[in-house]
């Protein structure tokens, strides 16, 4: 236990995914698999009360190109003062990026745009540095784009390009694991951290406190944090319990 106690903490980012104004969870990122969990503001405030330092906030409608929840997202960010927010979903051009930055979010997650518009993504990374993370959503080693509905190229080719652009952080989701409660893809994370010195935030599949412990073991390799979603909403454990295992 002493070894574990000396392992640096794993930053936890409880997820609030918003569709049609409600907090929802998807299974494997597929539209139509939503489970409704009520008011996003209530969900975020509950996480804040339990000790969250970060919240991962996603506009699913914007990610799928079917609308926007910008008003709800701003309300969430305003209500959770003192908690940093990583904002994701549908940020694909200067207009949506500037709106996201003005919302009060601490960090913006680029997804599809980093795959489909690499020149713009490189320019944004150059301008905003640490405020920009790039989401790498993968099936095997093939990237997924447009709300995971299209293929977005080879993971390692895109990673090399983003490294050259100076990307400061990656948010890595195994799409096949997301929302399934089947455990994170530790092999993918080990491989990825061996190919970049930049911090990696893991996403997808966390189902138990043992999974949190396994991810914390990867912190020395470069896994900085983990996004936790369905397990919290399904009551597998509380955020307070997870934070304890993560080293808070």
From TrEMBL:
Q: Where in the cell is it found?
A: Cytoplasm
Gene3D superfamilies to which the protein is assigned, alphabetical: Aldolase class I
- Where is the major localization of this protein? cytoplasm
Give its E.C. classification number. 5.3.1.16
Report the pathway entry.
Amino-acid biosynthesis; L-histidine biosynthesis; L-histidine from 5-phospho-alpha-D-ribose 1-diphosphate: step 4/9
Q: Which catalysed reactions does the entry list for this protein?
A: 1-(5-phospho-beta-D-ribosyl)-5-[(5-phospho-beta-D-ribosylamino)methylideneamino]imidazole-4-carboxamide = 5-[(5-phospho-1-deoxy-D-ribulos-1-ylimino)methylamino]-1-(5-phospho-beta-D-ribosyl)imidazole-4-carboxamide
Q: Which InterPro entries match?
A: Aldolase_TIM, His_biosynth, HisA/PriA, HisA/PriA_Actinobacteria, Isoase_HisA-like, RibuloseP-bd_barrel
Q: Give the active-site positions.
A: 17, 137
A single GO molecular function term of this UniProt record: phosphoribosylanthranilate isomerase activity
This protein's UniProt keywords = Amino-acid biosynthesis, Cytoplasm, Histidine biosynthesis, Isomerase
Q: Which domain of life is it from?
A: Bacteria
Protein family (similarity comment): Belongs to the HisA/HisF family.
* NCBIfam families the UniProt entry points to: hisA-trpF (TIGR01919)
Q: What is this protein called?
A: 1-(5-phosphoribosyl)-5-[(5-phosphoribosylamino)methylideneamino] imidazole-4-carboxamide isomerase
User: What organism, scientifically named, is this protein from?
Assistant: Microbacterium psychrotolerans
The beginning of the lineage is: Bacteria, Bacillati, Actinomycetota, Actinomycetes, Micrococcales
